[in-house]
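Service request form, structural biology core

Requester: graduate student, group of Dr. S.
Request type: structure prediction, single chain
Budget code: on file
Notes: please return the result as structure tokens.

Sequence provided:
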Amino acid sequence: MIEDNSCRGIPAALDRQPLQVRLAAMALLLPGAAMLVLPWATLTVVPLLLLLAALLGNEAESAAFPRRDDLLLGTALVLQGSVWVGMLVIKGEGRAGLADAWPFALGLITLFALSRVRISATWLWAGLALGSLSAGGWALWQRAIERASRASGHEPMHAILYGNLGLMSGLLCLAALSWSCARRERWPWTLLLIAGGLSGLVASAFSGSRGGWIGLPLAIWVLYRGHGRLLPWRWRISLLAALVALLGSLYVLPQTGVASRVDNALSSLQQYAAGSDEMTSVSARFEMWRGASQLILERPLSGWGSSGYQAAMQERGAAGVQHPDLGRFWHAHNDFLDAWVKRGLPGLLALLALYLVPLWLFARGVNSGSGEQRALAVAGTLVPVAFIDFGLTYSFLAYPAGSLIYVLLITLLWGLYRQAR
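Core staff response, request fulfilled:
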């Protein structure tokens, strides 16, 4: 599919649009930069801009809403937010529940607003590419100029969040390639998106965040399912060789720090398996997972609540059951265990719905539709895949920033995908 007027530059195209489209375009441009480069609170502006754009629109032109799939996604958001508040109210932590649940309310606003605003996905892809390039450049600056040991972002972002979100941003740029290849000016967009994808890998490498690398093969498989089978074999082989060469160079070059981080993880794993008492980032995770699992067995249905979990971990440390330093961590460094141990079985089921519902909605379109539809479906599949991966070794959704980024990406991609269909 080749879009009309696609040769116009973004600033010129924006200047000629009515106010409704301008607001929606700014909302789609923001997430790519606000995820990593701007303070994360900037993301709260996105649903507000979309809501204002929706109120300025013509109701007669809006798409039918909600449909069955919209209700499924909305139910998953409501379920997660409600369980987060409800279970913590039961534990006497209502304010904390509200503080953690508000991103899901903003997701519902985004879902509704995009049903009343028709906007091109161009703005989202452009924002993601520019944001990924900025994040990679910032990571390079921190390592090469500031001599930081690991690249990180604005508080409360840190190296783990920054690196994994940088990786996801790069993957989303690569997801858009089927969209760029269907445009009249395919080469400028394709090169921009490839540069954004590579820059995301650079941000991840310079952050030293190892957790995101575990799921990279699965993410590559999703990209291949969406794009690879449409390419001739010589292109597939060439791209695979280029990817292997890039990943190999990131590992070999000492400036990236990848080799030392991987070697350190393997060494720590061997020490833990041998029964060493030395506390490393790897052994600490295994011990936190073991402690959280034992607490879950004590209260599998109701959970412990946030403060109750930390108090119980501190008691375990005081009793000599585990290392006392583990009591200072306020989450379990695993999203599934963290949801279960704090919010009980309802928390685990709500988290599974939050991941699996959008995964099912988007994965159906990975092999079908136009280039634009396929790009949005691949990107929508990659977001839960990436967050599931990130959540294996860190509690991403324990941070409002992590929840807001996940919810906004899912609802933005779904709103654009339902328009494209």
